Each structure stands twice: as C-alpha cells, then as structure tokens.
Amino acid sequence: MKTKINSLYLSLLAGTLLTLGACSKNDDPQPLPTGPEEIGYYFLNEGSNLNSSLDFLGFYNGSYTENAYSGTIGKGGNDMIIYGSKLYITATDANKVIVLDAASKEELEVINIALPRYLLGYRGKVYVTAHGENKVTVLDTTSFSTNDIPVGRSPEQLTATGGKVYVTNSGWRDAATQGYDNRISVINPTTLTVEDNINVAENVQKIAADTVKNVLYIGASETFYGEKKPAKLYVYNTANRQLSPMEFGIEDIAIVRISSSMTQAYMISSNYNGATKPTCLVMNLSNQTVQELTTGTSIQTPYSIDFLPQLGFIVVGDAKDYQSKGTMHFYQLYNDGRATFSASQAVGVSPKAVAFNVNLKK
C-alpha cells in the first residue's frame, strides 16, 4: 500500500543537502529535482507477534510503500544490510536469509540457515551469525554458495577492523542448562577460520569497531541464569589486548567517524546513570565522555540505532509499546559532533533496521 509523505519528505530532502562538514544557507526545505524511484530508504520491522515486514520510502518522490517485498519474510526479522547491489535480510525464526535486488526489490535467493541473526558485509562476502548451529555462514555474493565457520554458542553481532572479523558469542539460547558464553571469536577473512578467542564477559551480544584506532566496543547484556549481572559495555584495544569496563551497558550501538579528528558512538542504554528505561547516548571516543543525545522529539522506547553514511544520518527506531506502529527518527550529523533532529517517519511495528539504497535498476 502506498501513501504520500509531505513534511517528512521535504525535511529529509532538506537534511540531505547538509553533509558532514557543510551547512545550509537556507533554513527552508528545498526539494531536490525529480530522480529515480528506486533510490530511498528500506525499513525492516520486526512486527507484532514476530510477523516481520519490509517498507520503502522513495527519496525523490516521497512515496511510502508498506510490504515492499512481495514474498513473506516470516517471523523474527532481525537484521538488514545493503551490500553491493543486493539487500540481505535475516529472519531468525523463519530460519532463512532473504536476498533481494536492492533496486528492483526482486527476490534473488532464499538461503536456509538455522536461526540466522546478524549480518556483516566485508571484503566481498556477507557474514551471517547462526544460533541454530553455532556458526558463522559466509555467503558468496554472486553464486550464493556458503562456507561455515564454527564459533562459540549463540553467536550474535559482528564487526570488522584491522583485517579481522570479530563475532560475539552470547550463549543465551541455552544458558539455562549450559551457562553463558563469554568470548569474541576472531575470524581470519582470508582462511575463513577462527584464529583467536577473546574472553570478555558473560552474554556478550553487541559489538562495533573504531576502525581508526582498531578498538572494539562490546556490549554484554544482562544475565538471568546463575549470578544476575547488569548489562555492561567493554572497551577492547586490539593492539595491546587491554579490556576496560564502562559503568553502563548498551542495547545497540553505531560508531561514526565524524571528522578526521573525531569519532563518536551512538548508543541505546537502559542503565546509564541509574536509568530504568532505554536512553539514547552519544560518546566521544577520544576521551570517552558520555552524554544523552538531545532527541528534539519524543521517543518512547528506543529500540534500534543505525547510521546512514550516504546521507550523514543517525536513525533511531522507536518501538513504542511493541504492538503499535513504530517511528524512525532522523538526525543530521555535523563535523563538529552535533546531531540535530531532522524528521520522523511512521513505520511498522518494532522497527529493527534501516538501509539506504542508491542502486539503479538495470
């Protein structure tokens, strides 16, 4: 179903005129010229009762399409990336990775993987963590052939820096009987083997990298079996192997190089400074100073956070009550570190990820 976007569409168009390091001389929204309809935003919604959906917002024409994918995602839509000309979606409870042409939305392949979770595009391959078989599956982006790499238990998020791929192993799926895992698996992308393991903390799930300094930011989630432990963020220096804990935990994280001298982490935390509900934070990675992100709008339940490098936007997904339609909030980044509210877009239930397509139809 298509609906027309008005003020949001104009706000986003105006915002994209402001790149990192540039300022607008006109405060009024300036519509861009008409352009290809396939350029725009994909929104992955986890859905109520885990019935997931994929929506699309046209960048130039402002047309919003619900259920932009003609097939069925199924239950547990968890992660989405555009890598090259293709869009990849993990549907955890449906045990599959869906591959679409990012421009035409045509289904190219459905790959059966047991409980797939997170995605990473790196050096011409797409890496997928799989809870069902405690492995990382590496997809060839042309033939869709696969290679499997055994890792720890209940692998979650991935990142890459310094020529290595890092995978969190949480162990949460069978923690009631086996306890949690606490390791980061280090994968060599040339040999597709695990060459090292880093012990961090129980139930490590989130991870992002400062690729300038090759430093990892690792989120250990709250534990519920055995000793109860709150969520905590850890900083790991890959050069000297030093691990340092922060005083709070995270539910999601995106690291952005703002300028040649500034890199920042945008995070969602439920226990920062005594908080009892999710809060959006920003941390300067040079000195690790943390402050709350000034949202400029009401966010009920921050649920996801992403960065769109093509536009310089941080995007926060608001799940509200996890039953009603959610909202994506867009923030324009500047090279002095400011993040200013740009616009909001109503999306589906429990917005989980956003991606921006610049590929054109062949």
Automatic annotation (TrEMBL):
InterPro entries: Host-pathogen_enzymatic-act, Quinoprotein_ADH-like_sf, WD40/YVTN_repeat-like_dom_sf. Residues 1-22 form the signal peptide. Keywords: Signal. Coiled coil: none annotated. This is YVTN family beta-propeller protein. It comes from Olivibacter jilunii.
